[in-house]
Amino acid sequence: MSSEGLGPFVRTFDRGLDVLTCFSADRAELSAAEVAARCGFDPATARRLLRTLESLGYVDGAGGRYRLTAKVLDLGYLTIASQTFPEIVQPYLEDVAQEVDHSCSLAVLDGDTAVFVARAAVRRVMSIRLAPGTRVPAAASAVGRALLSGLTDEQLTAHFTRFPPVAYTDRTITDPRELLARIAEVRAQGWALIDQELERGVRSVSVPLHDAAGAVVAAVTIGTHTGQIDDDTLFHAILPHLQTCAAAIERTVTIGPVSATMFTGPQPVTPSSRVADSTIDSRPR
């Protein structure tokens, strides 16, 4: 572990963390010599560190072999416990998914992308896959525009200056002035619709979630294939359920103080521009 640029640095603490992280599923048990070799320590240092960690209860040594104990989980428990928002909203998403027979997701804004942090999936032959951690361009997606509706026009102008909109299909709106007008509509009506701007054949609708102060903190969304759902079903069946879901989450979850860490959860964020399970290529055109 490098200490460059970190300021005051406790090397012994650093080495102790190296010892803890040198264990893995493939190497659940290690000798002091093996720890030394993996961490680049001399054997005497490795033994001292292992004995210290054993006395603290983080490793268990028997027969010259060491393994991590369950106490190691305590190191990450508080972080995980403070990032439970995806688990809290999951029942709401599942209710909507069951009612409309389409997968429902929740996302938050991160720079120029919307990051999906929770999802209730419905099994279909043709499905739109947006697993937690998936990212989609904010300007070209319904969930992204719902999230961007929480910004002022001045903030949006600065946003599009920093992140110039790009085209993903021949329908993608890239003119910042037109995007401002579309997002103003989202802000006024309380929902966003994208028709094949991100992917050909994919239409999505989204509703923003507000905290007690009225700030947009997340958005729920449902994506459909244009050949499966007509406009009447989208507006009169799917959208009302999504609005009801958003209102319920606002009443029971986001009505209290909201922190950014609530939404990220323990899921790894893996950048992806693939939205559907086939024939999808959302590289800029």
Automatic annotation (TrEMBL):
Record GO terms (molecular function): DNA binding; DNA-binding transcription factor activity
Biased composition (Polar residues): 270-279
Keyword annotations of the record: DNA-binding, Glycerol metabolism, Transcription, Transcription regulation
Annotated region (Disordered), positions in chain: 264-285
The HTH iclR-type domain, residue ranges: 10-70
Domain spans labelled IclR-ED: 71-255
GO BP terms: glycerol metabolic process; negative regulation of DNA-templated transcription
Matches recorded under Pfam families: HTH_IclR, IclR_C
Record-linked SUPFAM superfamilies: GAF domain-like (SSF55781), Winged helix' DNA-binding domain (SSF46785)
Function: May be an activator protein for the gylABX operon.
Protein name per the record: Glycerol operon regulatory protein
Organism: Amycolatopsis pithecellobii
Lineage: Bacteria, Bacillati, Actinomycetota, Actinomycetes, Pseudonocardiales
